[in-house]
Amino acid sequence: MVENKRKAILEQVLLNSYFIICSLFFIVPLILVITSSISRDSFIEMYGYSLFPREISFAAYESIFKVPKRIIDAYYITAFTSIVGTFMSVITMGLMAYSLSRRDFAYRGILTKLIFFTMLFSGGLIPSYIINTQFLRLNDTVWIYLLPGMVSAWFIIIMRTFFQQLPIELVESAKIDGAGEYRIFFTIILPLSKPLIATISLFCLLARWNEWMTTLIYVTNERLFTLQYILQRILREAEFARGFLMNVPGAFEKLDFRELPSHSMRYAMTLLAAGPMLIIFPFFQKYFTKGITIGAVKG
Predict the structure, then answer these.
(1) What is the extent of the structural domain holding 139?
(2) 9-23: pLDDT as tens digits
(3) What is the pTM of this model?
(4) At 111, phi and psi to the nearest 5?
(5) Are 132 and 218 in contact (CB under 8 A)?
(6) CATH code of 278's domain
(7) Are 228 and 206 in contact (CB under 8 A)?
(8) For residues 47-82, b (16+ Cβ closer than 10 Å) or e, as one string?
(9) Which of the 8 DSSP states describes residue 191?
(10) Where are the alpha helices (DSSP H) in 38-104?
(11) Would 16 be classed as within a structural domain?
């Protein structure tokens, strides 16, 4: 009895130690990013990256927020397109997946094949650019962030597979009570699909929050620049200025290059870009573990 108790305690200690070590692999890089963002570039170049900054400096954040309006506008555009775009995507894909999950839907077979076909083949960048700019006229509008890429064939198939696993008797009983298809979907199907909806929403939100290529290709209006693009642009400007001045004779005597951060700015931008998602993720965490495997079983 005592031997079994000691064995159980030893197993618990080993298991806890294992998870503590795994957690450190995630926590230590985050601490390194934070400390590097408030370190002087000169110390980073001399001593490398450190968990404990030799001298605290907020020069990187001061450079980023030198023109605060463009950062605020970028945050607004990114937050708006991420939240609204995610809502539109989840509702649209959910309605399509629900239709395909119904065995009494006459065209479910051909539509499923067409959707799957788009997972294998696409028109490419040039046809997409022509359609979005010449035909739909979405360039330099907020719709360029919302409409293209609003649905994902992979997510539709996952949602359809999950909806097929729900008891069909729920739908039939609701129909007997006089409920229509939209009411069945919003009052019965969606409440039963919280883990799935939360997981798909998180993936869509992350993808839209990290979007910058769309801005690079389609947007020239600075008021519509996303956060990721504007941060990348600020970094390029800082690196260009630093590289240019280093080649100017006598610049070292006239300027303090610590005022032109480059290394620390990268990490400051990482925090500014990832910070909101780090705050939001815990709200999805309780659904994420369950929802990540939902719909993965072939139905």
Answers:
(1) 67-291
(2) 888 888 888 888 988
(3) 0.79
(4) -70, -40
(5) yes
(6) 1.10.3720.10
(7) no
(8) eeeeeebeeebebbbebbbeeeebbebbbebbeebb
(9) G
(10) 41-47, 59-64, 68-101
(11) no
